[in-house]
Amino acid sequence: MRNLFKLMILAGIVGVLFSACTTEETPQNFASYDEAYLALEGSSGLYFGIVEQLKGAKDVATNFDGTLPDFELGKSSSQVGLRQLRKARSIQSFSYDPSTGFWTWDTTSTEFGTITATGHLRFTPRDAFGMPIPATDKMEYNQDIRADEIESGEGYTYSFHLKLLANLVATGIAAYRDSTGNLTMNGDNSINFELGYNEPQYGNATFKYTYTSTVTDVAFSTENEYPVGGTIGFTMKLKISGVDAGDEEFYVEGMITFDGTNIAVMEFGGYTFHIDLDTGEITDVLVVKAGDAARQLLKLRNK
C-alpha cells in the first residue's frame, strides 16, 4: 500500500502541475491552454469511466435478469485506487423487497481497510417479483461506496478516505426496446477522495480531490452505440500539499456534450477539447477541426 500511495502522488503531480488556477468560492478558468490540458489529461480516465457507467446502466435497464448488475462504477473507481472493491464483489448480498419495489445489494469488507458498498435498483412498472415487463419505462438506480484505511508502521503513517455516490434515472425503456424512441439518462455522481502520508523521506503530504457531475438528457438509440445527445456538467476541485514540487490547487467546471459520434466535445476550465469515447484520448479541438476541414477538401478535389 505504501508503494501504491507514492505512485498515486507522483502520478497526480505529473498530471496537475500548474499554478494559475486556485481554489476560489466559484470555479475559475485556467490561465493557459497547456495548464488546462495537463489537468484534463491527468483526469481523463474518470470521465471515460463515467461514460462507461452510463452505458452499463443502459444495458441493465434493457437486459436485467434478476442477477447482481454491473454498473461499471467499481471499474471506473479504479481510476482513484479502489480496485480492491471489485475483489470484494463476490461477498455482496442481492435481494428484492416487494414492499418498496427495490432490489438492494450491500458489501462490507475489511480486507483492505474498511469498504462498504450499498445500492438500490427499481423498475416501473414491474411484475410481482420486481422484474421489468414489456411496459417498463423507468429504472431508478443509486449506489454509495465508502472506503477508509489508516496504516502506520516504523516511521510512517498513511490514511486513505473515499466516498463515491451515484444516482441515475433511465426513462424511455419501452420505446428503446421497441426501437421507436431513445432511452434517456438523468442524474448525478460525486467523488470525494483524500490521501495523507507522513514519512521522513517524503515529509507530510496530502492529496484532496472532489468531483461532482450532473447527467442531463443523455440519450441512447438502438441505431447508435454512442450517446446521441445530452450533456454531463461537472465541477472539479484538487489540492496537493506538502510535496517537494510545491502546493498546487484548482477549482474548475466543465461540460461534455454528445452528438452520436465517438468524439464528444468537452469544455474544461475555459478551453475546448475532444474526448474519444472509444479510447478516452483527449484531443485539441483545433486539431480535430483542421482534420475535418482537410477531409472535406479532399472530397471536393476528388469529385
Written account of the structure:
Helix 1 packs across helix 2. It is built from six helices and twelve strands. It has helices spanning 2-16, 33-63, 73-76, 83-87, 173-177, 285-302; strands at residues 93-97, 102-109, 114-124, 138-153, 156-171, 183-199, 203-220, 229-241, 248-257, 263-268, 271-276, 282-284. A hairpin with a 4-residue loop joins strand 2 (102-109) and strand 3 (114-124). It has one domain. It has a twelve-stranded antiparallel beta sheet with strand order 1-2-3-4-5-6-7-8-9-10-11-12. The chain is α+β, with helices and mostly antiparallel strands and 303 residues long.
**Looking across the biggest beta sheet, what order are the strands in?**
1-2-3-4-5-6-7-8-9-10-11-12
* Mean pLDDT across all amino acids: 78
Total count of domains = 1
Helix fraction, binned, reads 25-40%
How do the SSEs run, as a string of H and E? HHHHEEEEEHEEEEEEEH
Instruction: Calculate Rg over CA atoms.
Output: 21 Å
Question: What is the rounded distance between the termini?
Answer: 61 Å
Low-confidence parts lasting 5 or more residues at pLDDT below 50?
1-20, 72-84, 286-303
Strand content: 35-45%
Number of helices: 6
Categorize the overall geometry: flat
Class from secondary-structure proportions: alpha+beta
